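Hi everyone, sorry if this is the wrong subforum. Our group has a chain we'd like a structural model of before ordering constructs, and none of us has done structure prediction before. Sequence below.
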Amino acid sequence: MKFGFGTFLTALLALSSGGPATATTYFLSPDGTGDFPTIAAAITAAVDGDVIVLSDGVYSGGGNSSPQSTKEIELRSANGPGMCEIHGTSTWRGTLDGLTFVNPPVPLAIRSGTIRNCVIVGGGEGGLETRYDCVVENVTVRDGGQPAIACFWGFPTLTGCTIESNAPTNTTGPGTLTLARTNATIEDCRIAGNRAYRAGGINGYVSTAVIRGCTIVGNEGKDAGGVRLGRNSQATIEQSTIANNRGDDTDSADGAFVHDAGSLTLSRSIVWSGCGNSVFAVGSGTVDVTCSDVSPITDPGSGTITLAADVISLDPLFCAPEDCLNTPTGGGIYALDVGSPAVAQTCGAMGSLGVVCGTGVEELESMPWSRLKTLHR
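Answer:
Right subforum, don't worry. Here is the predicted structure as tokens:
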């Protein structure tokens, strides 16, 4: 049989490019009756681009409890995190989607990957650790140790996440959401009812962050209940609500604490506490506030805090706030009453949740569920 030059060239090009790549989807069951008996066996067979789908049930024991992969593959549930549990942890590079991880002995480790629509429950050493340019979307981390989420290096993005009711098993956890040498973007997240050593909410170390549309309430930490920026850290906070958190130390802040050589820019936000000092800055630390509602600063510290003319200090009239004396607590509704001074300013509305109480039922019915579910958990 003779082959023409065109056929030979086509075959040569196919070989040089590895041939036509087609992603394969594997289906697994907890009882081992799927395409492979365990998640580990499926990972071994999979190649970059493949998808492993887990049917409903609990995955535990050898080969299932700690799935690990350095390949660009996706591990996801067939019907969402409420139907699929992995009793253990994971080290992953590709994508994790729609899974519940129960009591991970060590935090899940995501390396330049994506985790979305997942729930991490329990785990005394913390819930999730990301490295490099990771994407964290609609992930819930609750009832575990600290830090609940730790991001190292790169440009991580966290969107629509809930971090709630986590507490340290020792005194070394720096913050509930810890940023270390990162340039992070954090949007539309809820951080509530946590306790950590340095910061009950967000702790930055040699990091830069944009924090937008976030609700940080009812948290407790030594330096800051809400947000702490360590040395050489910068953050811009926009349209966020930081309320009824508690800083435990003498030189601390319930809302925001900025260390030496750190800087915070705050706009269209609410930083409020009925228990103590709202903002504190140390040494060369700076805080610049515009168009925000900030409770009285009783001890500004040795740093520089600048409040623009459009900053107010009036009760924001939350719908049903939790007493700050009860922190850490994830309770309370921090949307605003229709009469709130935080929505009537010419510079723009303040805070993350908008007006809910004092409005008609029709307005609540027209509000998207994604917004409503953040008001109270």
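For your construct planning: The mean pLDDT is 90. The longest strand covers residues 199-205.
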